[in-house]
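Table S2 (continued). Query chain:
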Amino acid sequence: MENGRGDALPKSVKKALEVLGKDKAPFFLMVEGAQIDNGGHSNSTRDIVQEMLDFDQAIAEALRFADAHKNTLVVITADHETSGFGIVGGSMQEGVVQGDFLTVDHTGIMVPLFAYGPQAESFNGVYENTEVFHKILKALGIR
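Corresponding output:
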């Protein structure tokens, strides 16, 4: 880690799913892309973009697992937004993103939630983030 994290997050997700997926018992795996938040706190467009690309690769591992194991629900969200980052310009050809920030702190901006797999439709709509817990329990048939 001294020389950078590299692809440790997606590799860790893949390994965790391999280990947990060997057993037929149900499991819950939470993965956090925490460094995205740090990029917001430091108002670093570069860090936010780099960490989002890293997190995207971790999500890809989860989706591949879900495709192979049809009883897998993948839920992707955030606990809050940080910095009020917005894209104000850039160039796809040059691979450049220009962003601007409202703050270095958390905001009240809504965060998206994406769900894939069985019961994914249960996660449609706008609701308090604390409701995600109850929706997961319901999807699992626990409540």
